Amino acid sequence: MKHVASAASAACLFAGIAQAGGLELARPAEAILFEQGNYVQFSFSQTDADVSGDYPAFVGGGSTGDMSDATRHIGFGLKMAINDRLNFALLMSQPYAADAAYGQGFYEGLTARWNSTAVDAIVKYNMSDRLSVYGGASLLTSSADITIPVALGNIASDPDGPALLGGGPLPGSIVSDYSASSSKETDLGFILGTAYEIPDFAMRVALTYRSEIEHEFDARETYTQLSLPGGVPTFSPVSTTTDTPVIMPQSVTLDFQSGVAPKTLVFGSVKWTEWSKWQVKPGAYESETGGEITSFDNDTFTYQLGVGRQLSDQFSVFARAGYESKKGGESSRLSPTDGYTSIGVGGSYTMGKATITAGVENAWLGDAESGTPTDFSDNTATGFGISVGFAF
Question: How many CB atoms are closer than 10 A to CB 18?
């Protein structure tokens, strides 16, 4: 049962589409805290989403083309058993990412990138052979850039047109050719958790809280401003650096696993993430348009349920299903899907003290509507991943 339990723990590392809420690419591997003895793990996953939509007729119609590039995640985990009660883990992950680029139609030229790296240091204390508590610090580094083409910039601030980017009537000025590039910021959050285990049945329930982390970016904003002094059009290039606070969301995750038959394990998780507090609102953009560049209106709930089976002393297999409920409302053009359903399969092979786990997953992404309105429907994503762990 030990090998199939390790495979179930590693399953959270492959195929980042299973963490599709907001900008979340992959969750850190806190499960490494429950490995026996000393353990080190390396992981890689890639998700390739096919996301496209159809423009309305009043902006020319046609397809947006595939606006989502492949995303990749590299992870690392080191767990050390200090003594019988005290354990320490160091984790590296890339928890948030976005790579959006529109290549045709009305949104052509709209691009956005979000990059992040997190380093977590966690201490786990075994209060008994069943009850443990853990906590630590999470150091998150993030950066972003975005380009908004002329058409979107003009209509965003046109009092007679749709407010595509949250804008509205302006006192005699229109923004176009907008771009912003942020500084790279590193800020600190914390992690708290507790777990209850019954080792004889491979049963474990773990509750993990991760705090929000607020970045104070310096955003370099450039755009062309049209002013109308005395009714005479005047074009002026503007370049300025403004403060842009962005809150990366807090979350609560309930993980569980239990043996249900000899060599058979059921596992899963329920996760709440407060994406409703996340928005990108650079100072100059807000001043010119009265709104934010992008945001998420609602929090997300993400569910996973899987089963693992040990086929031999060396080989285990697992399958899992994932679900994120639809939130409704208007979706961001940088993430124009709403919820998902996924199915993944994988296997784990143990050779002495080394364990290799690999898996593939397919997701059916929920239909969404962005601000034009542009309809995004029948979109999918495919992911694969591999992790290699060593006990020492």
Answer: 30
Distance of CA 143 to the CA centre of its chain: 14
pLDDT tens digit sequence for 270-282 = 999 999 999 999 9
Q: What is the C-alpha to C-alpha distance for residues 105 and 61, in angstroms, rounded to an integer?
A: 8
Rounded percentage of the chain residues whose pLDDT exceeds 90: 66
pLDDT (average), residues 363-374: 89
| Residues shown for the chain | 392
Quote the pTM value: 0.89
Question: Which of 21, 20, 25 lies closest to 44, judged by CA?
Answer: 25
Write down the residue that tokens 């208007």 correspond to: 330
How far is 141 from 143, CA to CA, in rounded Å? 7
Closest CA to 178 of 155, 152, 216: 152
C-alpha span between 12 and 264 (Å, rounded) = 18
Question: How far apart are alpha carbons 235 and 177 in whole angstroms?
Answer: 12
pLDDT tens-digit map of 101-123: 999 999 999 999 999 999 999 99
What would the two tokens of residue 215 be? 């970045």
Residues 281, 33: Cα–Cα separation, whole Å: 38
Strands (E), 262-376: 264-273, 279-280, 294-295, 300-310, 315-324, 340-351, 354-365, 368-369, 375-376
Amino acid identity of residue 237, one-letter, is P
How far apart CA 272 and CA 190 sit, in angstroms, is 17
In the block, tokens 């009043």 appear at: 58
